[in-house]
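Task card 7
Instruction: Convert sequence to structure tokens.
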Amino acid sequence: MWKLAKLLALGIGVWLAGCSKSTPESTQPATGAAKAHGAYRIYVMLVNSVAHKVIRPIKLGEPGVIKPMSVLLNADASRLYVSTGRGHKVFVIDTASNEPVASFDAGQRPWGIALSPDGKMLFTANGPSNYVSIIDVASNTIVKKVKAGTGPWGVITLAE
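Output:
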């Protein structure tokens, strides 16, 4: 079951509002961009969705290399997965500490991400490579790449 206190919005340079039934304690990780000295730094932000205030940024690596593309919570909202496009990685954030606990190679430009219904596999749509990577989340390793047409941007999973 999803924890309503941890909902996500994705934005580059703008904040997007979450659609949730919020409580005063609600927080919402989001991605955003801040311009500093002529260069954009892109990061995941933890935002209080009731007060509409930034709590703090969550650094994921070298600015300009790591650019969050998509965010996804696991079923119990204990892990936040962040794809990084040209960074070739997926980061895993522990939502209790709001700190990255792992990162791993996901293939060429992972954009869209989805978890298997049982939460054991992560799927990344890797646009330019025309593949979807299947990643074992216990070991954070690619177990298979599947040809997926031309330029896959997104991926979803459905329970049978």
